[in-house]
Design a protein that fits this description.
Helices cover about 45% and strands about 15% of the residues. The protein is of the alpha/beta class. It has a 4-stranded parallel sheet with strand order 2-1-3-4, with helices on both faces. Strands 6-5-7-8 form a 4-stranded parallel sheet, sandwiched between helices.
Length: about 250
């Protein structure tokens, strides 16, 4: 089995975290191809940055998807996920949707712990887009500058743990989602040390991707996730033009 994992951000340090967690989650019999966006921002924090990340992910997907059995959009918020499902011949998963699915299998009310205050409104909108707002206990986030997005876990270890404890004690969370690629692996590090289950998007996406590949449900040829219709286009990179032509 081969999984393509795309970091929609340009931070190679974050890609290293994603790759490490994906590798640990997948096991030795699964090949992981890790790709970092060639354009965009250090980490996605706003709706507009997510728009840029979606395009960067589409470019990376068009260039690297051949030969893979599933693809993962490795940024919380899942930039471009629905559009990529239209054109990709294999299952496409995102960190948010995967983490939400895991959380819903483990408890009724979940909280999200994130790295930035600015992210919260957008994350709430993403949860609402999945119809799960009634199961969201809270979103809490760090409220301090980040010296390095790749070292958030080390730089703010106690603050992140405090947030996890607060969502349980004060917000009634039955499951915690540690949100965002910079926190990849944190759920593994916190395992067994908190009174409720903790999940993250990378390990969830990898596990769900493996399950979908084995399930082999097929690709939509009708409905809203069928490939886009053929039509004139201009100014697109060759890889995107070829991807559209597959429809």
């Amino acid at each position: 089995m081969r999984l393509l994992v795309i970091n929609p951000n340009i931070s190679t340090s974050v890609s290293d975290l994603i790759h490490k967690e994906a590798r640990l989650s997948a096991g030795a019999d699964v090949d992981i191809t890790m790709v970092t966006a060639q354009m965009g921002v250090a980490y996605i924090e706003t709706r507009f940055e997510a728009l840029i990340g979606a395009y960067a992910t589409a470019l990376a997907a068009a260039e690297h998807h051949a030969g893979h059995d599933a693809m993962i959009v490795a940024a919380f918020g899942d930039p471009g996920l629905s559009g990529l499902r239209e054109v990709m011949p294999v299952p496409v998963l995102g960190l948010t949707e995967s983490a939400l699915a895991s959380a819903c299998l483990l408890g009724h009310r979940f909280s999200i712990v994130a790295i930035s205050q600015r992210i919260q409104a957008w994350y709430r909108e993403v949860v609402e887009s999945h119809g799960l707002q009634h199961r969201l206990a809270s979103i809490r986030a760090l409220d301090r500058p980040l010296a390095s997005v790749g070292s958030v876990q080390e730089d703010h270890a106690q603050a992140l743990r405090d947030l996890c404890e607060r969502v349980v004690e004060e917000d009634g969370a039955e499951v915690i989602i540690v949100a965002g690629a910079p926190l990849a692996g944190l759920a593994r590090a916190l395992h067994g040390s908190l009174p409720v289950p903790v999940v993250d998007g990378v390990s969830s996406a990898v596990q769900h991707a493996m399950g979908l590949v084995r399930l082999n449900p097929g690709k939509a040829t009708r409905g809203s996730f069928a490939p886009p219709p053929t039509k004139p286009n201009a100014g697109l990179p060759d890889s995107l033009t070829r991807l559209l032509a597959q429809g």
